[in-house]
Amino acid sequence: MNKIQLVIIAVALLATSGTCAALSDEEELGKLLYFDTNLSTPAGQSCASCHHPTAGFADPDNDQPVSQGVLPMKRFGNRNSPTAAYAAYSPDFGTITEDGETLYAGGQFWDGRAKDLVEQAKGPFLNPLEMNNPNKRTVIVKINNSDYADFFEEVTDVNLTYLSGSNVELAYQKTAEAIAAYENTSELNQFSSKYDLYLAGDVELTGEEMMGLELFEGKALCSQCHPSEPGPYADQALFTDYTYDNLGTPKNPDNPFYTLPKKFNPDGANFVDYGLGGFLMSGGVAGWENEAGKVKVPTLRNIGVTSPYMHNGVFGSLEEVVDFYNTRDNATAVWPAPEVAENVNIGELGDLGLNETEVTALVAFMETLTDGYAAPA
């Protein structure tokens, strides 16, 4: 690790220090791994590159609708990077019963293809559109060449000197477990927004923000999928129920994934993101068609600093998102067709009847969910 990269990591570590609880050795190791830009091929991209603390642990490059891999101007993923903050509270991927209906919920990534945080942490290292390592051994060799190799061995009890097949597998598993341990800490799950301080009685919401909260829990129907009450996964509100929905989001014509070589995107501009349905289809799950187009309901915590929005980054501002929710089914509004027309959520959005003042108030409330709020002296 060179001096410049060490400085970059040091700055990132300071950005997450704050008043968070002290880290265990495993969590500290996970933090070093999370911010290490040497763990890609070529070097230059870390977990934090697309999930950075200054951007609510989402992609700090909000000029691109989807996230760029380590190879500059060549490779992009097909989706916008979701925030890693509060991802630790998501249940393992599976089904739940709600009002007598069986629903998919939990897991990681927009489509739920990783069961939990440990499995999610394994993915980007080997994804050719992200960190681009050819195999697990490459990642572990890079860790062995790092300044924290001895610390890795001490924490994981894995000997990096002998990189046999089984030892590589064990080291890779321990790498993912350490990153997941860090993602479970209060550095990513701060509950330090203005809204949290309001609930604690330490600050007051403005009149506009209070109006937005009332709309959020009432007329705008937001809390049906983004509950503002605690439970069942945490003692604080997570602003997601971790289920899956097809909101009728249109394709994003500016998605650079469409222009990738056929090796990565054989369908070109005709690519359709089936979300959860695509993941289930690839696994041969019967009834996947009923989940086509659905993506995981994201947390709204830090939503004010995690643009662009939706799984494909098609909307650049919260105002535009709320406008879409508000008028999608209004005859006077002209929105592009849904990317996947089947299974579109009808009834909870589309024609909410919000006026301009109410839209502004709703956005103002959502902006109170940004962590790191400092109450006026």
The CATH fourth-level homologous superfamily of the largest domain: Cytochrome c-like domain
Structural class: mainly alpha
The second-level CATH architecture of the largest domain is Orthogonal Bundle
Count of all domains: 2
Radius of gyration: 21 Å
Strand content: under 5%
Helical percentage: 25-40%
Biggest pleated-sheet summary: 2 strands, antiparallel
Give the strand line-up of the largest sheet. 1-2
Overall geometry comes to globular
Low-confidence stretches: 1-14
CATH topology (fold) name of the largest domain: Cytochrome Bc1 Complex, Chain D, domain 2
Number of strands: 4
Q: What count of helical segments does DSSP give? A: 12
Question: Would you mind describing this structure in some detail?
Answer:
The strands form two sheets. The chain has a two-stranded antiparallel ribbon. Strands 3-4 form a two-stranded antiparallel ribbon. It is built from twelve helices and four strands. It has helices at 3-15, 25-35, 47-50, 117-126, 136-144, 149-156, 165-183, 194-199, 207-217, 275-282, 318-327, 356-366, and strands at 94-98, 101-105, 244-245, 295-296. The chain is globular. The chain starts with a helix and ends in an 11-residue tail after the last helix. The chain folds into two domains: 3-98 and 116-183, Cytochrome Bc1 Complex, Chain D, domain 2, CATH 1.10.760; 194-369, Cytochrome Bc1 Complex, Chain D, domain 2. By secondary structure, it is mostly helical.
Q: Briefly, what is this?
A:
With 377 residues, this protein is mainly alpha-helical. The protein is 32% helix and 4% strand.
